[in-house]
Amino acid sequence: MNTLHAQTNADLHCHSTVSDGTLSPEALAARAHANGVELWALTDHDEVGGQVRARDAALAMGMPYLTGCEISVTFAGRVVHIVGLGFDADHPALVEGLRRTRGGREARAHEMAAGLAQAGIAGAFEGALRYVGNPDLISRTHFARFLVDAGHCQDVPEVFRRFLTEGRPGFVPHRWATLHDAVHWITEADGIAVIAHPARYDFTPTEEYALITEFIGHGGRGIEVVTGSHTAAEALKYTETALEFNLLASRGSDFHSPDESHTDLGKLAHLSGQLTPVWEALESRIQVGIA
Ligand code: AMP
Ligand code: MN
Ligand code: MN
Ligand code: MN
Questions:
Q1: Is residue 291 pLDDT above 70, yes or no?
Q2: N or C: which end of the chain has fewer CB within 10 A?
Q3: How many angstroms separate the CA atoms of 228 and 59, rounded?
Q4: Is 229 in the pocket of ligand 1 (CB under 6 A)?
């Protein structure tokens, strides 16, 4: 492909029913295409089980595709998300690493349900399970949808505020992958690791500096600048960060659901022309025809 540039309508972050989105990989591909996306990646949490379906649907519509995932990492006692792009989805170290990262989710969900039961909400495990597309990937989002539909809260953000964040009755601390491992799984599989939605971590400048420099030290090369999780001011701030640390810039809606997401697929501001988009470095990894 020789049509890639900073203004390409790339959307390299979203979720399907294979993790905590509400649309199938095929429905997401159709929505991305209808919204004018020119380069797409499905990035389910800790899971590549939707990659073949997403790619086949994208390529059938003539929409170029990059493989993707979003790995849950514990860094400095906090959860950080690392997006992987353009990797070989069959690479054994990546597949096994993701399998282990998913591993604790069911036990954690039972603990979450026990905490919610103490707060007077019975049957949350079975309730959340009804919203789960992939039994390996029961997430806080599925609990949130159950609590909204059961009438405990008005919307998903309210559930997170009242029940699912640190100090709240349904919150269970969990150890995810290490930053080292997540970056290595992605890069060993020939992909590029990207720090997802950096403004969402509430790190101090010192903590953020540690995250970025350790990430680069492990071989990480990219950072999300324009995302559905950033305000315009945050995109500006992370444009500066990308330039300062010589990081490749990524762009993605983080779309989960037509009913919940504020930013639709492909409906994002463009990257600044000063930045090097991550897709320029991934040109050889972009799939344009069925192999
Ligand atoms: P988990 O991986 O099970 O801890 O769930 C994390 C997911 O919950 C994220 O990927 C988001 O989709 C969702 N999430 C986290 N915080 C919030 C929030 N404050 N409001 C709405 N959704 C959230
Ligand atoms: Mn999510
Ligand atoms: Mn995320
Ligand atoms: Mn995401």
A1: no
A2: C
A3: 24
A4: no
